[in-house]
Each structure stands twice: as C-alpha cells, then as structure tokens.
Design a protein that fits this description.
The complex is a heterodimer. By secondary structure, chain A is of the alpha+beta class. Chain A is about 35% helix and about 25% strand. By secondary structure, chain B is α/β, with parallel strands linked by helices. The chains are: A alpha+beta, B alpha/beta. At the A-B interface, strand 2 of A face loops of B.
Chain lengths: ~90, ~375
C-alpha cells in the first residue's frame, strides 16, 4: 500500500454490518470477505473521504504503531478488489 | 474479542449462504436426492410470494442465493424469479440437471452477470452417472454444458456429489471442467432424503476419503461448499470456514416456504418456521427457538477426548442425525473410525419422511 495514495471502496462492493464488523461482497468477482473489526469497517468506509491513506489513518485515530498491520489487511482487501485506488 | 469463527458460531444478523429449493417437481429421480423430489407440492410459494421473499432478502443484504430443487428450471416463472432477484441485488447461483438449458435459455442466462449456473453430474461417464441420476441424464447434462459454452456464458460450474462409484474419476471430472473452462465443485454425499436409502452403498470408504482429502489439498481451486470439513482431521485444514453453519450462517428454504437449519436436514426436528409466518423470514432467522439453540456453544460429547476435534468439529450434524447417531458424537464418516462401533449398534433411524418422490417405482440401472 502507498500511504500517500488515495483509496476507496470498490464501486461493485456492498458492505453488510454484522456484530463483529461487516461482510463485504464484490458483485463482480463474487468474493465475500470478512471485515473483522468495527474500526476496520469505519476505516474502509472513510477511505474515499480522504486524499491519502495517511490522512484516513489520522482521521480514524489509528496510532502509527498499528499502521503496518492495517496496511497489510488493506493490501489483502485490494487484492480481492474490495478496495481500489481512487483517482485524485 | 473472540476469533471470527467463534463469532460466526453465535450467528449473524442474516445468513451468508442461503439455499432455496424452488420446487419439489423434478423430471429426474436421483437415488441420493436430498429433498426426495419428484412431484410438485400444490402449496408451493406463488410467484408473488417468491418475489416478496426476494425483496426481504434484499433488505437483509443477503448478497446471493443458491437456488435448487427439485429441478428449479421446471417452474414456468423460473426466469422471472431469477431476473427479479438479480434486479434487487440478490445474485443467483442455481443448480440444474440441464434438461431445460437449450440454446435459447443458455443465451438468456449469458445475458446476466449475476447468474451462476451449476450443472450436476455424478459420474464422469454415462455409465456411472446414469446409475445414480437416471438413464440419459449424462447426455442431457453434457448438452446443457455445450449450449452454455456456445452461448459464451463464461465460467459455469460442474457439480459432483462424491460417491464410492465416482471417487476414482476425480481427474476425469477435472479434465471435463478444464475442457469447458468451467469450475469443478465437489460435495459430500449426505444420508438425507432418498440418500438415506442409498448412503450405505454409495458413501466413500475410509480409504477413498483419504485419497479424496489428498486430492483436495493439492487443488485449493476446486470448490467444495465447505462440504468436507470432517476430513480436516487428517491434517492441514481444507479451504473454508470448517464449521457446521446450520442455523448460524446457513439455512434452507423449501418450496412451500418452510425454513430448515441446512439443506441436508429436511426433517421436522430441524424446521425453524416458515417465510409465510407473520414476522417473515427475518424473525424466523433471528428469533426461532431452534436457530437460537444451534447458536449456543455445542458440546463435543464423545469427541471431547479426541485430538482432532478442533479440526473436524465433530463433523456434519445432518450426517449424524440421519444415520441415527447422537449429535454430540463423531460423524458417521469419522476418518479415525470413531463412529464405527456406534453405527453398528444403531437401531431405528429417523425417517426422512415420504417427501415428494413420484409414487411409481423408477427403474434404476444397478451395478
């Protein structure tokens, strides 16, 4: 992940809130992915409101010590096309 | 926070994977049919009821539904129902014997991005397949596959129930799928419906199960619908959640709208309610006594002392139920043979009931 790049929820993805977080479903590739914490759900939903991943982390009050683990999780979501790069 | 799998056991606000049998009518009479299908039930949900149910699924954000039967394409309003579902954002995957997939139907299906087709065969050749599914059924399925390919449908699925007779044809199934650019899906034979009568002679032997496990571990791209989690006791877990999803993330709607815990337990003991009830499907899913019980922590029972319990979770509830085994003990196909003694001592088994089998005996080719 590039912390200076902007990301967004993929336009073909729907999120369904669940007690643990949310289910994300991609209508195009039919992948179903679990977003395992409410923080992750809030972060994914807010990506499009920010000009970069770094800004999204800051707005979601995610401490720098956790950025690496969140970036790994987001990279998996990008690989499944749940999130994608946003045009700036 | 508990791990995800533990949370899933506690149930979700709506199912992830919902199977909907659209009709009990079927032009075949497969000897392992889970729903003992054949005759249409006159109380079947009407087209309007089907559409209202789909609208409810859309409100619950059920992303897709697995439609089966009977033979779902026999319903005259099949396409209307499927197209309504897709238009509401509820994608459709349907299972069919292929008999109605002529070139026109294939082109119509190819026109939608949100319809997935699964053609069932139970042998890689007519001899093996037709012994289970009836004379001519292999040729019919192949014709449907040819029609989908000619219509440029894209990637469809070939769905196989693994039996003692076809387990040595896994490579042939894979080659067949490859030839069509199709995905191969293997599922487990359950002793449900008419399968209760054929299970003893058709379920894979323990040696065959071990071969199957090795074959699947080497092929993570082969779909299994999380069917074989009891085999995970043999080592590395197979891809999937590896848990019994009944009433937790999975359920079944039958053609008259009754809601069951999973597609393999069409029995009164596992009926949670009906989509025709006052609160609709939503309250059956969220409030029915049965589903709330299934979401409670389950006892490992006789499996508690087995080192494999964490991997196999004691296996399939439906397989235990219909073979007359206790639900908190080993699966009848436990790879360590831990159910063998209990199986030998079983007296009366729960009857799957008369179902909707056609009254006249069907001529079956026997081997």
């Amino acid at each position: 992940m590039d912390s200076h790049a902007a990301y967004r929820l993929h336009p073909q993805v729907a999120l369904r809130p669940e007690p643990f977080g949310a289910l994300a479903y991609h209508y195009g590739n039919r992948k179903l992915v679990f977003l395992k914490t409410p923080t992750m759900v809030a972060l994914v939903r807010s990506l499009a409101d920010h000009g970069s991943l770094a800004e999204a982390f800051k707005a979601a009050a995610i401490p720098p010590s956790k950025h690496a683990s969140y970036e790994r999780a987001l990279a998996d979501l990008e690989a499944s096309e749940i999130i994608c790069a946003a045009a700036r | 926070m508990p791990p995800l799998v533990e949370q899933l056991k506690g149930g979700l606000d709506a199912p992830i994977c919902l199977t909907w049998e659209l009709t009990y009518a079927c032009n075949l009479a497969c000897i392992h049919c889970l729903s003992s299908s054949g005759r249409r039930d006159p109380r079947e949900l009407t087209g309007d009821e089907c559409k209202a149910f789909i609208d409810e699924l859309a409100r619950l954000q059920v992303f897709y539904v697995n439609i089966g039967g009977g033979e779902p394409t026999i319903r005259p309003d099949f396409f209307e129902i499927v197209e309504h579902s897709v238009a509401q954002g509820v994608g459709v995957k349907f299972s069919t014997n292929g008999s109605q997939i002529d070139p026109v139907a294939a082109r119509r299906l190819a026109g939608s991005n949100y319809i997935d087709v699964q053609i069932s065969i139970d042998g890689a050749n007519a001899f093996t397949n037709d012994a289970v599914r009836g004379v001519g059924s292999f040729a019919t399925a192949r014709r449907a596959m040819d029609n989908l390919a000619a219509a440029n449908f894209g990637q469809f699925k070939i769905s196989v129930v693994v039996t003692r007779e076809n387990v040595d044809q896994l490579d042939d199934f894979e080659a067949l799928a490859l030839g069509y650019g199709a995905e191969l899906r293997l599922t487990r034979l359950r002793p449900a419906g008419r399968g209760a009568d054929s299970w003893d002679r058709l379920h894979p032997t323990n040696g065959q199960q071990r071969e199957l496990y090795r074959w699947l571990v080497a092929r993570p791209h082969v779909l299994t619908g999380d069917s074989f989690f009891h085999l995970s006791a043999l080592g590395e877990a197979l891809p999937g959640l590896n848990l019994c999803g009944a009433g937790r993330i999975v359920c079944l709607i039958d053609p008259v709208g009754d809601v069951y815990a999973c597609p393999f337990v069409l029995h009164d003991d596992f009926k949670a309610g009906s989509v025709r009830d006052a609160g609709g499907f939503t309250s059956v899913w969220r409030e029915s006594q049965l589903f709330l019980e299934l979401r409670q922590p389950q006892s490992a029972g006789a499996c508690a002392s087995c080192g494999s319990f964490d991997s196999c979770q004691g296996g399939c509830m439906a397989a235990k139920f219909f073979t007359g085994l206790p639900l908190d003990g080993p699966d009848p196909e436990c790879v360590w043979g831990n159910a063998d003694e209990a199986l030998a001592l079983v007296g009366a088994k729960p009857s799957p009931g008369p179902g909707h089998s056609k009254p006249t005996p069907v001529a079956l080719s026997r081997r």
